[in-house]
Design goal:
The chain is of the alpha+beta class. It is built from 5 helices and 10 strands.
Length: 186
Amino acid sequence: METTRFLTGQFLLAMPGIGDPRFERSVIAMCSHDEDGALGIGVGHLLESISFHDVLKQLDIDPGAAPDVPMHYGGPVEPRRGFVLHSRDWGGGDTIDVAGRWSLSGTHDVLKAIAAGTGPTAWLPALGYAGWGAGQLDEEMTRHGWFTLPGDDALLFETEAEHRWEAGFAGAGIDPRLLATTTGNA
């Protein structure tokens, strides 16, 4: 199997003591990572101030068949921009296949399909994203801060947001309570 240094289709789990309160206990679904930079959608924290129906109403989309689920805090970049991570059984004009694991859409067509009951079978909405410039994430990965985990549909679509961080570490055989908040140098 060919290995790559890029993290598209994987998860980043924030290590205890990451040093940035915006990312404490974060779970980020990596949707794009190459030599030009990286983009991920946070799936470990929910926004309390806005729901999916609120977003649909702001966009003049009748919620129809869509359940009123919480919105995820996708990240600190463009916090008013919406995204939907979803199963690969639906695709629109802007849909991006993420390493054959899940899909990412960011236009109204996926919202309208969900509202009409014709959208993807599994999905979660988010506002904002986590972004890194060229080489920035690669450099961050050399320091204490992030743990990588292979992409897993069950973690993304079947695990409640508030449990994803612990479940991600547990799936890797790690008890996060035993992790140190700093690293040393040899």
